[in-house]
Design goal:
Layout: E1 2-5, H1 10-20, E2 26-28, H2 46-61, E3 65-74, E4 81-82, H3 95-105, E5 115-126, E6 129-141, E7 157-159, E8 164-165, H4 171-177, H5 179-192
Parallel strand pairs: 1-2, 1-3
Antiparallel strand pairs: 3-4, 3-5, 5-6, 6-7, 7-8
Bound molecules: inosine 5'-triphosphate (ITT).
Inosine 5'-triphosphate binds near residues 85, 86, 95, 150 and 154.
Length: about 200
């Protein structure tokens, strides 16, 4: 079955493809459809943004569509950067800019107050019906970037049980424990129980 991943983020695409390898799903992206518009992420929540991205592109393509909205929520920063994670250091910010800004914002914050989680909300739409799935991983913000795998804030997010940052994990290891990996597991489990769409 062909499905559309309503995301232009190639790093997410790699993780989604890693998770669905073995299922008979052909994951397309907006890059396969030259005329699809950008969807503005102006919702107040991850849920609203995921649903908006999925619904907009589902209506335009008619394909079963999956959207992912993810945020890093840092307790000492009252949940920031949260829904603004992609533009934390300003419009057009790179992953490195965002990590640098976060490390600066956390300067002087003691170890025990550096807790944070990543949360992913997936919106899945088939024939106009929306379902949401979510996943999270708890960890701590480091004091310096560590590791070169993954993307985004992975080098500054330490997972205590593994003693590593997300950027020190292989794609398979990250997918096993991450926010996105867990949300995708819930979605895949749902698909397996819904033969007409799985
Ligand atoms: P799409 O909306 O096109 O899917 P995006 O990059 O804008 O792509 P999000 O708004 O969901 O996606 O993600 C916000 C930012 O959070 C993203 O740009 C990364 O900086 C960061 N992020 C998302 N998933 C992450 C992950 O698994 N690990 C580390 N950082 C992540």
């Amino acid at each position: 079955m062909k499905i559309l991943l309503a995301s232009r983020n190639r790093d997410k695409l790699k993780e989604v493809r890693g998770k669905v390898a073995g299922l008979s799903l052909d994951v397309l992206t907006p890059d396969d459809f030259p005329d699809l518009p950008e969807v503005e992420e102006d919702g107040a929540t991850l849920e609203a943004n995921a649903e908006k991205k999925a619904l907009t592109l589902h209506r335009l393509t008619g394909l079963p569509t999956l959207a992912d909205d993810t945020g890093l929520e840092v307790y000492a920063l009252d949940g920031a950067p949260g829904v603004y994670s992609s533009r934390y250091a300003g419009p057009g910010a790179t992953y490195a800019d965002n990590c640098r800004k976060l490390l600066q914002a956390m300067e002087g914050v003691p170890e025990k107050r550096r807790g944070a989680h990543f949360r992913t909300v997936l919106a899945w739409i088939v024939d106009g019906r929306v379902r949401l799935f979510d996943g999270r991983v708890e960890g701590r913000i480091t004091t310096a970037s560590l590791g070169s795998n993954g993307f985004g804030y992975d080098p500054v997010f330490f997972v205590p049980e593994l003693g590593k940052t997300l950027a020190e994990l292989s794609l398979e290891e990250k997918n096993r424990i991450s926010h996105r990996g867990r949300a995708l597991d819930a979605w895949v489990e749902y698909l397996r129980g819904a033969p007409s769409v799985g």
